[in-house]
Inverse folding.
């Protein structure tokens, strides 16, 4: 028998075995996909309420958090636990914390979703606090892990910044819940800017910084790109920070032009990022640009459109409903589309690593594309994007049938996405794997 | 005595799961050496630092090499110097990628 070193640790070479156990990322991703399905159903059910555009209605708030906390954050946490180890060549600082925090997160999410749907103040307070604790544990574990890397490039800056903004967004959410429960009456006058801050930090801070940062690793990896320019990345990071703080400044001060500056600098950041993405795609070795990668590029275009909508919103404000439309467009068109697109590549890889990576020595081995052909993503991502265009245009025109059709297209696309990803995960095999070592 | 050509053939059974091309044709294997009787040393790289298939590929290379006749011990070392470039691929691999 040959001598085998510790798993992946090769004498004198690079330590490659840093990945957490399969159960850690997959349970977060699995919850994320289940919540995508919940969102798909609820989005369709709420489509007429969305057409009426009542910001702050309990069911709409619950629906939004089914997407942000349930689907996106949960999926992203799983992906980040996996990707951080390979992108930065570091282990997770506390795998037990990452493993056990899932149960706290699950409990908090279910309680918070029910509390939001019924607008139950006590539930919001209790489960909101648990959710804040779970998110803080995640963010602290990640930031401590990241601080151990020697690789302090732009991607590091994006990912660390994203998690700092996540903690700030949660802090704002805690204040919102306290105000709602009447525990901080002094803050009730600043409820609106506090809500805007929470949304800006979560969507513009956490999610945007995270998807931009990891794009620098994921896009070259999946397109097999080499020799692309990277000098713009730090500029993009700086511009993104400036844009975010300008918008936050505008929320908290009477200096309205800060919104314009924020939107303009945000546009510059995304244009810069777009040029980087173009550089990566141009230097790719894979001739064909796969559908998931096209989805990521489409999301980048949506970011530019979203920021233009922000400017339009400043010109022709429609009050809180107008803000809701811009945020919904950005959340669905930029963040959700990017996460769904990358999911088509990340989930099959993770499942392949766990179940099919051991060579059998018999016949052609199973490849990642055998689990889910990338072109299967095409109709889903196109349907999702088309639904979003119809929804946004119909909301702007206050045309209810269009809103319902747009919601239906988005729901259908999200539902098909869930079925495709779940088939890769194979729920029959997941059972034991999800609870490994708990 | 290890037949290094036989080892190389065995390593052709190890594929990059994302690209679908074996590690030999991809040019990931830098060095194959019998350091002492029955003991094989393999120096290899990955297409990119931070490749998520690191563990799987290096472990599969170790496993596949161990299947070759006369191999009693395998040591796999992953290095980044020299960094992998597309020029290191075989003609077949280039054709498969449409280059």
């Amino acid at each position: 028998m040959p001598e085998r070193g510790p798993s992946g640790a090769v004498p004198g070479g690079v330590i490659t075995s840093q990945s957490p156990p399969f159960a850690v990322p997959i349970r977060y991703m699995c919850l994320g996909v289940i919540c995508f399905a919940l969102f798909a159903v609820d989005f369709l059910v709420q489509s007429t309420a969305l057409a009426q555009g009542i910001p702050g209605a309990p069911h709409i708030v619950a629906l939004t958090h089914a997407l942000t906390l349930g689907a996106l954050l949960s999926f992203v946490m799983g992906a980040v636990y996996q990707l951080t180890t390979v992108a930065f060549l570091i282990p997770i600082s506390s795998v037990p914390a990452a493993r056990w925090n899932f149960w706290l997160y699950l409990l908090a999410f279910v309680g918070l979703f029910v509390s939001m749907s019924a607008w139950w103040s006590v539930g919001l307070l209790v489960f909101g606090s648990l959710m804040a604790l779970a998110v803080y544990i995640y963010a602290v574990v990640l930031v401590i892990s990241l601080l151990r890397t020697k690789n302090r490039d732009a991607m590091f800056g994006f990912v660390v910044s994203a998690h700092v903004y996540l903690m700030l967004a949660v802090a704002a959410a805690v204040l919102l819940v306290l105000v709602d429960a009447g525990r901080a009456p002094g803050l009730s006058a600043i409820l609106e800017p506090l809500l805007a801050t929470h949304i800006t930090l979560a969507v513009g801070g956490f999610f945007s910084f995270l998807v931009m940062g990891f794009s620098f690793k994921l896009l070259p990896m999946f397109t097999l790109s080499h020799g692309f320019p990277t000098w713009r990345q730090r500029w993009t990071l700086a511009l993104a920070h400036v844009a975010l703080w300008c918008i936050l400044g505008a929320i908290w001060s009477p200096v309205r032009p800060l919104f314009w500056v924020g939107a303009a600098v945000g546009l510059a950041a995304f244009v810069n990022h777009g040029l980087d993405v173009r550089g990566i795609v141009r230097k790719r070795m894979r001739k064909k640009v796969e559908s998931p990668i096209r989805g990521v590029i489409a999301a980048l275009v949506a970011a530019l459109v979203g920021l233009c909508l922000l400017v339009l919103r400043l010109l022709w404000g429609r009050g809180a409903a107008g803000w809701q439309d811009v945020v919904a467009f950005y959340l669905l068109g930029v963040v959700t589309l990017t996460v769904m697109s990358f999911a088509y590549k990340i989930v099959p890889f993770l499942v392949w690593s766990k179940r099919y990576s051991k060579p059998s020595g018999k016949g052609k081995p199973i490849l990642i594309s055998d689990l889910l052909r990338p072109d299967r993503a095409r109709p889903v991502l196109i349907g999702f994007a088309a639904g979003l265009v119809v929804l946004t245009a119909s909301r702007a025109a206050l045309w209810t049938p269009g809103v319902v059709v747009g919601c239906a297209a988005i729901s259908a696309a999200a539902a098909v996405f869930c079925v495709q990803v779940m088939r890769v995960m194979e729920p029959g095999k997941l059972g034991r794997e999800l609870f490994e070592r708990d | 005595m290890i037949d290094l050509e036989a080892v190389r053939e065995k390593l052709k059974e190890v594929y990059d799961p994302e690209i679908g091309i074996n590690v030999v044709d991809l040019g990931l294997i830098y060095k194959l050496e019998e350091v002492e009787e029955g003991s094989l040393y393999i120096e290899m790289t990955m297409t990119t630092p931070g490749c998520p298939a690191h563990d799987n590929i290096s472990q599969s290379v170790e496993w596949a090499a161990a299947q070759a006749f006369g191999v009693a011990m395998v040591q796999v070392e992953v290095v980044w110097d020299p960094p992998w470039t597309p020029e290191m691929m075989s003609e077949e691999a280039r054709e498969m990628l449409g280059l």
